[in-house]
Design goal:
This protein has helices spanning about 10-25, 30-50, 60-65, 70-80, 105-125, 130-145; strands spanning about 85-90, 95-100. It is mainly alpha-helical. A hairpin with a 7-residue loop joins strand 1 (about 85-90) and strand 2.
Length: about 150
């Protein structure tokens, strides 16, 4: 008796990983340093939104990005050198530096969110408003469960 096997393109798991690989690539017109700058400015903003003190450190960026502190330190240093992030003494820990977005970093933040939103909206073009709203909620919930499992 033959077993019916679905093609890979019909399986949610493999399709998720295929889409992630595609989305994780830097757009061709963008250099790798700018691409990593986007990761950092988005992490700094998200960390600032999550903390009561509003203070963001390399450690909080590492935790948010799920990378080693040494990796976050290198990425943040590159973002500082590129002018996207500035450091200042931490008010709560003398050993740490607080991170903030510069005007250039805020502009990179805005343009990256606009681009990411455009890609998302193009992918769901033609869907009903109800389907878009439901998918958006499910996608955010799905991603949050992957990132921070309960």
């Amino acid at each position: 008796m033959g077993r019916s096997v679905k093609p890979l393109d019909a399986l949610p798991g493999p399709m998720l990983f295929r889409a992630v690989r595609l989305l994780a690539r830097a757009p061709e017109q963008q250099d790798q340093r700018r691409f990593s700058g986007i990761l950092v400015v988005q992490a700094v903003r998200a960390c600032r939104e999550r903390t009561e003190s509003g203070e963001v450190t390399v450690r909080s960026v590492a935790d948010y990005m799920h990378v080693a502190p040494s990796t976050a330190s290198r990425l943040v240093s590159d973002a500082v050198e590129a002018g996207y992030v500035a450091t200042e003494p931490s008010k709560s820990d003398r050993r740490a530096a607080a991170l903030r977005l510069t005007a250039s970093g805020r502009q990179l933040m805005r343009s990256s969110v606009e681009y990411q939103t455009k890609v998302y909206e193009q992918a769901i073009e033609g869907w009903s408003p109800e389907a878009k709203e439901l998918f958006g909620r499910l996608l955010v919930d799905f991603c949050n469960r992957l990132i921070d499992p309960v």
